């Protein structure tokens, strides 16, 4: 691994002048299948191959469920206007109450997992059964834990599956908004739902060449963030880029000395196949190295909760 804090610059020039949009809303019809395909591609020969195959199966299931789900319901026009006027996230995750559309989404996800032993390992099926058996009150408490990024130590696997259902629901809601109505909320906060990013990426889009976008860990909205700036605290001082020797130079940990945190940065401009959630999951080794160096991870990825693979569904449990 490179020396922590050594490289004080990015590996490519900031370069071309661009006029990127502030926010790009998700396209659920391509989002989850793209993640699944990328995870499958990354899995071959990987040290946690079976686990990446499992995560790919969850993402593929997220995609498959889209076909016949009921239409989600946006907040009222008055509430959306109030959020716009106050520069607040219109789909504030902390205010979310599990409605009937979300319950249908969750029930179908859990049912598919329970009924597919060839794809999903016993810990995942058992977690699905426990979630399905819970009362509405228990479900809301679990939803609140996900939206607060606070996985209970005794039900991490349930937390992960619930987060997968919430990703479907929030991505569908976000896709119904108008990107032009979105406003910056705060450093490291999605302008749609208020969740932290899963990672950031330098893109090569025609109208946004060499500009950076964070991808929301919950609704998958992408928002523009100035480069060479801490995603978490906004500092432009003490920023360094750290990789692992022998691994792709297109994925780094962007570290910040003032707040001692990091968020990964992907260089999609150099490798378009990179996917924020998939490649974040597959570069767990970088997280472990940065943690050893004393940096706190400020990004959120439900498939990397805790330590190791971190979901209560370990690589050894997943089909290889």
Descriptive notes:
Helix 2 (49-64) crosses helix 7, helix 4 runs antiparallel to helix 5 (122-133) and helix 5 crosses helix 7. This protein has helices at 28-43, 49-64, 77-85, 100-114, 122-133, 136-147, 156-174, 276-282, 284-292; strands at residues 23-24, 197-203, 211-216, 222-224, 239-242, 251-256, 261-267, 296-297. It is globular, with a radius of gyration of 19 Å. It is built from 9 helices and 8 strands. Strands 1, 2, 3, 4, 5, 6, 7 and 8 form an 8-stranded mixed beta sheet that branches. By secondary structure, it is of the alpha+beta class. A hairpin with a 7-residue loop joins strand 2 and strand 3.
In a few lines, what is going on in this structure?
The protein is α+β, with helices and mostly antiparallel strands and 320 residues long.
How far from one another are the termini? 28 Å
Order of helices and strands: EHHHHHHHEEEEEEHHE
Outline the biggest β-sheet. Answer: 8 strands, mixed
**pLDDT < 50 stretches:** 1-15, 307-320
β-strand amount: 5-15%
Residues in helix, %: 25-40%
Question: On the 0-100 scale, what is the average pLDDT?
Answer: 90
Structural class designation: alpha+beta
The count of helical stretches stands at 9
**DSSP strand tally:** 8
Rg over CA atoms, rounded to whole Å, is 19 Å
Cα shape? globular
